From TrEMBL:
GO cellular component: cell outer membrane
GO terms of molecular function: siderophore uptake transmembrane transporter activity
Lineage of producing organism: Bacteria, Pseudomonadati, Pseudomonadota, Betaproteobacteria, Burkholderiales
Pfam families cross-referenced by the UniProt entry: Plug (PF07715), TonB_dep_Rec_b-barrel (PF00593)
Protein name: Putative TonB-dependent receptor BfrD
Main location: membrane
Amino acid sequence: MKKHSRAVAIAMAFPLGAPAWAQGAPDPSGGGGSGVRTLNTVTVSDGRPTSLPTQIPTTIEGATHEQIAETVNATDSEDALKYLPSLVVRKRYIGDFNHAVLATRASGTGNSARSMVYADGIMLSNPLGNGATFAPRWGMVSPEEIERVDVLYGPFSAAYPGNSAGAVVDYVTRMPTKLEAHVKLSGFASNFGLYNSHSSPAGQQLDLSLGSRSGDWSWWLSASRTHSKGQALVFGNRLVSAGTVGSAGTPVTGAVLGLNPSNQPWWLVGGSTIYDTTQEQAKLKVAYDFSPTVRATYTLGAWNNTTHGSVDTYLRDAFGRPVYSGRVNIGGRSYNLDAPSAALAPTETALTHYMHGLSVKSHAGGVFDWEVAASLFDHARDTSRTPTTPLPGAFNGGPGRTTDMGGSGWHTFKAAGTWRPIGSAEGVGAHVVDFGFQQDTARLRTQVGNTLDWIAGPAVTPFSAFNGNTRLQSLYVQDTWRFAKDWKTTLGLRHERWEAYGGQLGNATKLLDFAPRRNSYDSPKAALAWQATPDWLFRASTGRAVRMPTVSELYQGSIDGNRIVNTNPNLRPERSWTTELSAEHDLKGWGLDGVLRTTLFFENTRDALYSQALTNLVSTVQNVDAIRTRGLEMALNAVDVGVKGLDLSGSLTLTRSKIAANGGFPSSVGHEQPRVPKVRATLLATYRPDARWSYTVGARYSGRQYGTLDNSDGNGATYMGFSKFFVVDARIRYRIDRQWSAAVGIDNLNNNKYWAFHPYPQRTYVAELKFDL
């Protein structure tokens, strides 16, 4: 990469957005490019701009397609976020479709509803629930189609709802200006060893894309297929103390003695949820330019996922035969492998999701620009299956349960405008006023039924049902004003009207209704930037975020007689005030071409939504009265560090997040917020000795964390635990010629065994061959 393009990449990746700096990049004010860094927004002329509000003086980080291709072994779209400050994605295996949750500065991997993910303006965040099984729909974007990804930290833009409390991720995918075609073939392999589970997870991936532009029309067609075999994710277990002393049960060997997260001795009896996953993704984008400044774009995406979850028992009887179920005897104690739930159970999953997006947008850059956009995400087919009869007989079918979420989904609408008063485009007194109306609607349909054939049979009788809807209607306005030569501010306000309706909870014989709810909230925002010297920029941002309860948090529960229990349809929304103070320093005075940012962040959250004990036996989502978070984030991005061609970036995040008040669970007060470690860090070094080769080494660290509100799970290095980790990655890329390139890489080079409830992947090898027309 040439030095100029590397400098532009720095500006885009650290931070991109007003105020952001691009040394050597064109001066957006038309001054001819003096090389002085100013409050102006970076303008990137050779790529599509982010849809994030870059005029707001707050933290935005990002990466371009070229940066991702050079530095990251990207097999899924979420891998593009791997080295951005303070971000962690809980990706358990390649193609993880239902647990890859994004964690941010003050939110852990159990809080999927506290961040938002978009692709070309279409919402990929799953608004139906909060937690591991409501991860963003990453599969709708392949790594190869990403032109850039940007992240807005914190709820500082009035253009986004309260789910932006943690971050807003914006993927911009490719749209051609001429005929182009791309083919990439990838393979990956690893070895996995844990307890008595030993396997060789592996797979392959094929990406195809073709696009062109002719006159006012442009189009892009892409498709990808991933086949991935993962490691065991769930481990059947029984507490040693739960066994009955005596000789009852089949004597077995092979069980592994360990400690659970609370340091209680338990037996690990086998691994399950060993996924064999096949995913296909296809996307069509068509754009038409009504004029040089008005474009209409339609996007159709389809994603299909078929997953077989197998099991591997450790147990053997006296004849060496595998034992999966029944009553067994381990070490002189008997245990029931079938109750209270099956220790080992296979699964089958079949999903087909569609997304549609249509937008008409003006981008003249003059006095007034506007946009009208709508999107739909549809769970056309969404079925998972598991047996209710013991193994090994269930391997061939038999009774079981199906969970059908077909008909679930969400749709959005936006009408927005940007007004720039005449005569104030760039200088002192310049205003940029953004305003708009938005509506986001979520629809949950979950039918659990009994079937005679758990592998392929239809549901014949009902078992339970969870249904409901939420709708959020919003009006917002924000004004970015350069009120003095070296000063810029943004003031914003968002008004939201939220309603939940159509809530239903059912069992095998009845369906009970919840009363509808309606509430309104206001969320003010403010940001300020001061260019103190050519080398120093200071910023302050603050904002309120109101995160509404999701459908599943409101309505999933159970029925006792004619009463609804184990759920609270009157949950209060989370209400957070977040503030950040930043100082950015141009490192030119240190002899470096780069930027160092230091940010203090503060978040106070009332009525945080967490699952906690309702009784001694039942847990459900409740409001935690108060959580207080304080932290420091430092991020560096520099090129030609000491040696020409050596680029260096890194981040360090120190966080102190505590439960300040919790009347529903007093023993949690004073303890750390679950899954928010005290320390996170990344370091990424890339060396390009010439135009063909690039060598990258990266490291990621996360400190100790807990999974429970009272931090009673002190043993993180075990199944269901949350451990610290230090992981080293490596990648080598070679440009064979203008059209061909190849890359090899290793993730988790040091083969660290670490956990986020489930085990993360161990050492994984990746190889790629790519052709670009």
